[in-house]
Write a structure and sequence with these properties.
- The chain has 130 residues and is of the alpha+beta class.
- The chain has one domain.
- Helices cover 34% and strands 29% of the residues.
- It is built from four helices and six strands; from the N terminus they run βββααββααβ.
- It has a four-stranded antiparallel sheet. A two-stranded antiparallel sheet has the order 4-5.
- The chain is globular and about 40 Å long.
- The relative contact order is 0.26.
- The N terminus is likely disordered.
Length: 130
């Protein structure tokens, strides 16, 4: 598997509110001849015939996730359910869960961790402030 960090996960959706940049872990692996990029802090993944297609797919999935949860006014509760610390502080309004916490609480991620060769890398993404 290619070990260089490629692509960008910045979407084009602007939303009505403010956004903050957050560094999130991404897990790249292959399964059934497809490349998969999994973002455990959002429990979202994208896939494709190449790693670049998988990153593009994840970008689309994340854009739709943010559009939907912001529109339904559920982003804050969904992030909390995923283990995020969400505060009303303007200094540090939110932080993703630790990888240790995700491994303990996310059976899908534990399965990837135990059963696949993978590459972890971090990306800065913009998250709507909730």
């Amino acid at each position: 598997m290619n070990t260089e960090k490629t692509g960008s996960l910045y979407g084009k959706w602007g939303g009505a509110g403010h956004q903050i940049k957050v560094k999130v872990p991404l897990i790249a692996f292959t399964e059934d001849n497809s490349f998969i990029i999994y973002c455990p802090v959002f429990d979202l993944s994208g896939y494709g015939k190449t790693e670049s297609e998988a990153e593009q797919s994840l970008t689309t999935v994340m854009d739709e996730f943010f559009k939907y949860t912001v529109h339904k006014n559920t982003l804050r509760s969904v992030l909390k359910d995923l283990g995020w610390v969400v505060k009303k502080s303007k200094q540090k309004p939110m932080a993703p869960p630790s990888m240790d916490n995700i491994l303990k609480n996310n059976a899908d991620f534990l399965k990837i961790f135990n059963n696949h060769e993978f590459r972890k890398f971090d990306k800065n993404i913009e998250v709507p402030v909730c």
